[in-house]
Amino acid sequence: MSRYQIFELDSKHYPHVVEFYQRLLEDSQNQETSEPYLDGIQLDMQAMIRKLDGIRKDVGAQIWVAESEEKAVGFLSLTIQANPFPSERYPEIGFVEAAYVNPEFRGEGILEQLEEKAASFLKRKNVKTAELYVHHTNHSAKEALEPTWILALSGKETKVL
């Protein structure tokens, strides 16, 4: 049995998710030069709570939180947006805004479970493609995501890195 469970975002998760966003900012450094490119930015808690409230109310957005022993250990945030190059086949795209798993829980399949929730959500919304952007110097994120970010949408595997 897994040591963690995946839940849709609830207000009890807000402090943890804001902390994870802050860690993402802190981890977003140029790993080639060790120079942070978002150095010193502190998130505004009230603005983040408004953002999370908005996501919970938006039918085209979702955040999933991974918990272990009732403690949040990771999350993935997804939105559905109009395709900037719309076509009849792909009028909308999924966009992974952020994903984070605490270092001590990495390698346990949590990110893959979060991705499965995102893929299921997109399929229910009839969205056939998704995108995820990783800064080119964020090698640890690229290594973690590249082998896993293949979504089976509409029966077809689509690589979205």
CATH architecture: 3-Layer(aba) Sandwich
Distance between the termini: 30 Å
Q: Number of helical runs?
A: 4
Can you identify the CATH class? Alpha Beta
What topology, given as strand order, has the largest sheet? 1-4-5-6-7
Q: Notable features of this structure?
A:
4 helices; 161 residues; five-stranded mixed beta sheet; single chain; Aminopeptidase; alpha+beta; disordered C terminus; globular
What does this structure look like?
By secondary structure, this protein is of the alpha+beta class. It has a single domain (5-159), classed as Aminopeptidase, CATH 3.40.630.30. It contains four helices and nine strands. It has helices spanning 14-27, 45-57, 110-124, 139-145, and strands spanning 5-8, 29-30, 35-36, 61-68, 71-82, 92-101, 130-132, 150-153, 156-159. The longest helix is centred in the C-terminal third of the chain and has 15 residues, at 110-124. The radius of gyration is 16 Å and the shape is globular. The protein starts with a strand and ends with a strand.
In short:
It contains four helices and nine strands.
Topology:
Layout: E1 5-8, H1 14-27, E2 29-30, E3 35-36, H2 45-57, E4 61-68, E5 71-82, E6 92-101, H3 110-124, E7 130-132, H4 139-145, E8 150-153, E9 156-159
Parallel strand pairs: 6-7
Antiparallel strand pairs: 1-4, 2-3, 4-5, 5-6, 8-9
